[in-house]
Amino acid sequence: MAKTHAAFAFPLPPRQPGTPAYLWLCDVIRSGILAGHLTPGIRLPATRDLAKQYELSRGTVVAAFAQLHAEGYTEPRTGSGTYVCKTIPEHLLKTGRAKETRVFPGRRRNTTRFVRQIGAMSYHEAPSSRAFRANQPALDLFPTTLWAQIAGRRLRKASAFDLLSCEAMGYRPLRDAVANYLNTSRGVKCTAAQIAIVSGLQEAIYYAGLLVLNPGDRVCVEDPGYSGAVRVFNALGARVMPVPVDEQGMTVPKTRSRNVRLVYVTPAHQYPLGVTMSLGRRMELLKWTRTNDVVILEDDYDSEYRYAGRPMPALQGLDVQGVVLFAGSFSKVLFPSLRLGYLVVPPDMVDQVASIKSLISRHAPLLDQAILTEFIAGGHFARHIRRMRQVYAERLDALVSGAERELNGLIEVPRVDGGLQTVGWLNAGGDAKSVAKRAAERGIEVVALSDFWRGGTPRQGLQLGFAAIEPREIKRGLVELRKILREGR
Ligand SMILES: Cc1ncc(COP(=O)(O)O)c(C=O)c1O
After folding, report:
1. How many CB atoms lie within 10 A of CB 8?
2. Ligand 1 in contact with 419 (CB < 6 A)?
3. How far, rounded to the nearest angstrom, does the alpha carbon of residue 311 sit from its chain's CA centroid?
4. What is the per-residue pLDDT across 284-294, written as a single tens digit (0 to 9) for each?
């Protein structure tokens, strides 16, 4: 078995005047062992190498090792080197841990309250093709082999420049491709210079918040709505105001508060209800934001998939005053772990976004951006959308017509115009949370819509995903739901 060597990269803290060098080094290694960075059984570097690394005399290092041996932390093995003891005396470990937890207690941010307030978002769940997993594209239909070929080709021609960095706003050819796509397919009016490539829409929401909000400012959000956005606004110290959604999308806020700075909205396919905001409502909302000097953040998370009706122009494209920030993502249209999305900002905000991006993550991973650019340029992006649109339309149809057939009025499933999921209203009564619980016991994944409300009275309903689910499994899910609802009666 290969020996495990310690990667010895501990910075040496300043030496207190009067402390001998060997005790100073001994202290650093001891702390490393107690903190668990140097694990039991690991081999320490040779004294000669350590002396060279820290510009100490070899005698100093030998004396430090002897001291650690005497204290029971390390053991020399003839002809092999010095190892951290397999069993460190328990009392030493306790002392070490206690010491460590006492470091700078008063200077740390009190994260407990902060974390409780924003909540953690767990996206790390296993993929599923079970009825009715929502928010997930059909990952098994993604052309991974083709992606791998493009990736291989692109990596083979990577230059030193590609391995170094790109502009904070993103890889220019990808920004050009996204600008072209947004102008032609989404009715967004922008140039490539206005586009920042970010790590998914979640990061775009965070940047939009940083650009617009001061602590204490108010943000209007859809009710029900996407909790991932609400948590970001809470984390930035803003106050969230829920605004009801009706069959035309988010209603125009009625608040007279002067502190409203931002409206966060999902007009293409309201999350989670799935309605598309009407043109009239879009115009009213734009007028309201202009009058009240409010910025809109338009979240366009899954609008590529549209099955019916005329495509509605993005709010950003209807806006003449530059009050709309537009954000989109490749998570739903390609695959979520790609972590690439975009934020489109008015020209006068470009420099601010570039500064924020360069501070927080410098730029999105360049090679992934380059691979995506080639995927788009080769026509594969458009082809993938076309193919998936057909698959998803069939699955939506299997869900809606299957629900009419199997559920016989127990659940009403509206035929949404687009997206990866819809809802099921429990019109004949029933508590959605308990239905979701009983469904989970039968291998059915549904979420009670009440989880998405934060102000108004929730309607009893379920979120039903269809994109990742084959028609046969959709049918099984509907049959199980029928049994659950009948038992409930
Ligand atoms: C409405 C909405 N906005 C934003 C996001 C975040 O997407 P991304 O994966 O691009 O960060 C999601 C994720 O599910 C979402 O549902």
Report:
1. 16
2. no
3. 27
4. 999 999 999 99
